[in-house]
Structures
1.
Amino acid sequence: MDRDLVHRQTAASAVKHMALGVAGLGCEDALVHLLNYVWPNTHVINAVMEAIEGMRVALGAAVILNYCLQGLFHPARKVREVYWKIYNSLYIGAQDALVAAYPVMEDEANNVYSRPELLMFI
């Protein structure tokens, strides 16, 4: 394995452990900085997926969803696959937390997208 790949894998693993270690202690700014450091590196995707899961626990699902939405409809198939893998993992781990973070859409003639119960609490 290439030395650079080993470095990236080790860095992603360290980010995961740091995120889980400081979850709930008010270090969100530092964690967002670390998330920007490891965000989808397709060469070591398994380590990055673990780091993103740690960030989901520490920062919340809404923050990760905001990062993820940018690539779900990317023109390149390889990029889309990675982002959909992240989204599916996020959906499995935090379905209830994602509802409040979904974008607001206007209702259509046949489809109703409004969530009045959620808006009562916001």
2.
Amino acid sequence: MKIVSWPPTDKEKTILLVKKIPNGILKTMYFWAYDETLGQALIVCDGDVSFRLTDLVDLLILDRENLEALAQNQIRSTEKYEDIAKSWTAVVVVVLHISKKGFGSYKDKMDGSGGSRGS
């Protein structure tokens, strides 16, 4: 066995964290759009306030009021990235549904779908 060691690097990696989105603030939203250069959703609100969601999972941290505001507004995108932008709105709908009714409603849909069940 050979042990290999190397000197530590002086380079740092910056990890962007999602800026906390206060409850209900998206009521003042002007628009939201898919930014294809960064692969993120940009939300622009009143008073030069803006937020970026870096991943679809970031939608899980939003409260119900903010999710409803996103659901009521169509996401903007270029035609080339329209399908990706629509995936953001689809996840908003799912997270909002879970927020209102919980995960149990999905179990009910799966049981009634006629899909195969394991033995």
